[in-house]
């Protein structure tokens, strides 16, 4: 490809911005790389940007170059506590689209109050790693269609966005499921955090729409948290969209505390 070049001026210390690949830009000053910009396309088609800059105005110059090259809308995600980074994106024209809370969920049933939370009548819980792939994929398709018909997959965390083949299940061994009348009606995904094998993240809780408000999500959470507690894991992180009132109530109702938050920003 033929990279585009942008500079901060014409003197010998000018920062040169070069598009070195389809998804990557470099900022170079005096033959030293002072920043990099990247793009990644999510399975739902949205284009996300990230910039690492460690000298002067390189962030702004990289952002200007990338925005000139790329079609809108564009997205990025920042830690809400990183005020400097959030301000840099805002100066580039990005605005907040949504907030996602990270909760730390206790596993001890004496803390969560879930020790005496049996499944609803007729519902059984299949432990993590024991779900059958066929019924799990069927449930995945049902839940995916229900979400798409309501809030849309763009409101889901990145890790559960549809894959190119239309499925969100990549590893059936990560799921616990709820079964009613020989059908899978709810699921909970448990993910091992990269490079932290002792840290398990609650990745997704989803119940079929015709089985909600019966205590199935609470029973799934009780089962999984109890199993983690039995393995010596004291807390499990979970990400929740702040607009998802049911999920917020579920986690806060078992003593989960907010540890941090991420902002998804958009430039339209």
UniProtKB/TrEMBL annotation:
GO molecular function: acyltransferase activity, transferring groups other than amino-acyl groups
Domain N-acetyltransferase: 141-268
Gene3D superfamilies in UniProt: 3.40.630.30
InterPro entries: Acyl_CoA_acyltransferase (IPR016181), GNAT_dom (IPR000182)
Superkingdom assignment: Bacteria
Protein name: Ribosomal-protein-alanine N-acetyltransferase
Source species of the chain: Planobispora longispora
Organism phylogeny: Bacteria, Bacillati, Actinomycetota, Actinomycetes, Streptosporangiales
């Amino acid at each position: 490809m033929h990279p585009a070049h942008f500079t901060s001026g014409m003197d010998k210390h000018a920062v040169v911005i070069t598009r070195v690949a389809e998804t990557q830009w470099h900022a170079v000053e005096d033959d030293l790389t002072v920043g990099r910009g990247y793009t990644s396309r999510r399975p739902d088609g949205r284009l996300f940007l990230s910039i690492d800059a460690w000298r002067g105005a390189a962030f702004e110059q990289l952002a200007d170059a990338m925005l000139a090259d790329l079609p809108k809308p564009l997205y990025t995600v920042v830690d809400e506590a990183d005020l400097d980074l959030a301000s840099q994106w805002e100066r580039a024209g990005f605005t907040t689209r949504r907030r996602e809370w990270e909760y730390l969920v206790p596993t001890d049933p004496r803390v969560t109050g879930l020790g005496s939370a049996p499944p609803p009548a007729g519902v059984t819980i299949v432990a993590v790693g024991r779900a059958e792939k066929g019924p799990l994929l069927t449930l995945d398709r049902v839940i995916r269609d229900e979400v798409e018909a309501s809030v849309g997959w763009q409101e889901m965390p990145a890790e559960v966005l549809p894959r190119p083949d239309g499925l969100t299940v990549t590893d059936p061994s990560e799921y616990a499921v709820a079964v009613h009348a020989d059908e899978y009606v709810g699921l909970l995904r448990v993910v091992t955090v990269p490079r932290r094998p002792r840290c398990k993240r609650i990745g997704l809780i989803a119940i079929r729409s015709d089985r909600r408000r019966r205590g199935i999500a609470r029973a799934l959470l009780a089962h999984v948290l109890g199993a983690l507690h039995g393995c010596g894991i004291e807390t499990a992180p979970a990400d929740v969209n702040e607009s998802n009132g049911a999920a917020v109530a579920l986690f806060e109702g078992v003593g989960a505390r907010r540890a941090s938050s991420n902002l998804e920003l958009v430039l339209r």
